[in-house]
Automatic annotation (TrEMBL):
Origin species: Ignatzschineria rhizosphaerae
PANTHER family xref list: 3-PHENYLPROPIONIC ACID TRANSPORTER-RELATED, BLL5896 PROTEIN
Tagged with keyword Membrane: yes
UniProt lineage: Bacteria, Pseudomonadati, Pseudomonadota, Gammaproteobacteria, Cardiobacteriales
Swiss-Prot/TrEMBL keywords: Cell inner membrane, Cell membrane, Membrane, Transmembrane, Transmembrane helix, Transport
Protein name as catalogued: MFS transporter
InterPro entries for the chain: LacY/RafB_perm_fam, MFS_dom, MFS_trans_sf
One family name in Pfam for this protein: LacY_symp
Mode of membrane association: Multi-pass membrane protein
Transmembrane segments: 21-42, 54-75, 87-107, 113-136, 156-175, 181-198, 234-251, 271-292, 304-327, 333-350, 362-384, 390-411
NCBIfam families per UniProt: 2A0105 (TIGR00882), PRK09528.1 (NF007077)
UniProt key word Magnesium: no
């Protein structure tokens, strides 16, 4: 039996790992059941709102702008809460209400009061999902260090949850998109109950110790948080993220779903196949989440991240050259390899080169906030560019930008043994 499989089985004996895994599974299930078809819902004339590319770009831009504000607050609040779940429970409360919000508030507002709908939707989606995703991941990473389990393995359960619902999402969307939104609420309620009532013994014990302990030295001050913005190393990462992950996110979320479904004889057929393919992709992603920590131990954090950038550029670039649905389906599956090879080493890069007590703030600012700033700036212009020159040419432009950012990363990102201010990384 392989060592990685033995380690995976051993992890289930750790209650903190199991609870964290279930939390991520339910959060990403609540998100993925509707988010995987959000762009199609906005643009579809039959099952959605029939919005233009520029209108969709505006929605994504405003979502990103509001998410940006929430992320600054979420990261700072959670670093002071340490292991407390207060913020997670707040986010889960919003996810539990996503069904009635979409059906009775968001859709009518976008149809009849577009500007107001954009603003209201941005606040709800950002608070419950777009900003919350980073804080759920950051808290799980902190738990992994406190309670001795592998973060990547726990994060894989989030991908698994997304994959399971993605398998259903396409079929439900073709019947009635409202089903997707109501199931989002169902998983959100389960998530909320899980966070309120399930606290492993080790977490309770450590939480009690922290309450009785003056943890001022463990909890970062406001001055320390603001001081992060003076770090040249953080700005290098922000620039890198804006020209890689941001462009990739616009490509993958704002453009690719409609591009793919339009390759088929009917939108309904494309939507069903897209849902099934999306599920397969995320299953593979969950497997890679378990394998990437092993890859990092062999070749290092920086090298793993660079491989992720190469795969990112290849996927975007190939999408600009092919319109055969079979070939494009295989191209889409590259996402399953690219995302774990990018996200996990990026998180480890923060805990390696920066102090760990600021990990949540660093991850939110350096990764998620940087990506959202990029989306605020780029979503609408890229949406207009797509309207003018089409998907294929737009994909090639995005691929060129990512390639250039890859060269920037090669010369700018620190090696694993340089400026180690956090948890040292040792290859095995």
């Amino acid at each position: 039996m392989p060592d990685w499989f033995k380690n995976s089985l051993q992890a289930f004996k750790n209650p903190s790992y199991v609870q964290s895994a279930v939390t991520l599974l339910l959060f990403f299930a609540s998100w993925g059941i509707w988010w995987s078809f959000f762009q199609l819902w906005l643009t579809s004339p039959d099952h959605g709102l029939n919005l233009s590319g520029s209108a969709v770009g505006t929605i994504f831009s405003v979502n990103s702008l509001v998410t940006l504000v929430f992320m600054f607050g979420y990261g700072a609040i959670q670093d002071r809460l340490l292991l407390k779940r207060t913020l997670l429970i707040f986010c889960a409360s919003i996810t539990s209400l996503i069904g009635p919000f979409f059906v009775w508030i968001y859709a009518p507002l976008l149809k009849h009061h577009f500007t107001l709908g954009i603003v209201v939707g941005a606040f709800v989606l950002s608070a419950g999902y777009l900003a919350a995703a980073g804080i759920f991941e950051a808290v799980t990473e902190r738990f992994s260090r406190q309670f001795n389990f592998e973060y990547g393995s726990a994060r894989a359960w989030g991908s698994l949850g997304y994959a399971i619902v993605a398998l259903l999402a396409g079929f439900l969307f073709a019947i009635n998109p409202h089903l997707n939104f109501w199931l989002g609420s169902f998983f959100g309620i389960l998530l909320l109950l899980n966070l309120i009532f399930w606290r492993p013994k080790a977490e309770k014990t450590l939480g009690a110790q922290l309450q009785n302990h003056d943890h001022a030295s463990d909890s970062p001050s406001l001055q320390e948080m603001l001081g992060l913005l003076k770090l040249k190393e953080l700005w290098v990462i922000i620039i890198f993220i804006m020209f890689t992950w941001t462009f990739y996110t616009v490509y993958d979320q704002q453009m690719f779903p409609e591009f793919y479904t339009d390759l088929f004889s009917s939108r309904e057929k494309g939507q069903r196949i897209y849902g099934s393919l999306n599920s397969l992709q995320v299953f593979l992603e969950a497997l890679m989440m378990c394998l990437v920590p092993l890859i990092m131990r062999k070749i290092g954090v920086r090298n793993t991240l660079l491989i992720g950038i190469v795969i990112m550029a290849i996927r975007i670039g190939l999408s600009g050259f092919f319109i055969n649905p079979i070939i494009v389906s295989f191209i889409k599956l590259l996402h399953a390899f690219e995302v774990p090879l990018f996200i996990l080493p990026m998180f480890r890069y923060f805990t390696l080169h920066f102090v760990t007590k600021l990990s949540a703030t660093l991850y939110m600012i350096g990764f998620h906030v940087a990506a959202q700033v990029g989306q605020v700036i780029l979503s609408t212009p890229l949406g207009i560019l797509r309207d003018e020159i089409g998907y294929s040419q737009t994909f090639l432009v995005i691929a060129i930008v990512v390639i250039l950012a890859g060269f920037f990363a090669f010369f700018s990102l620190k090696k694993d043994d340089e400026d180690v201010h956090g948890d040292p990384f040792i290859r095995s």
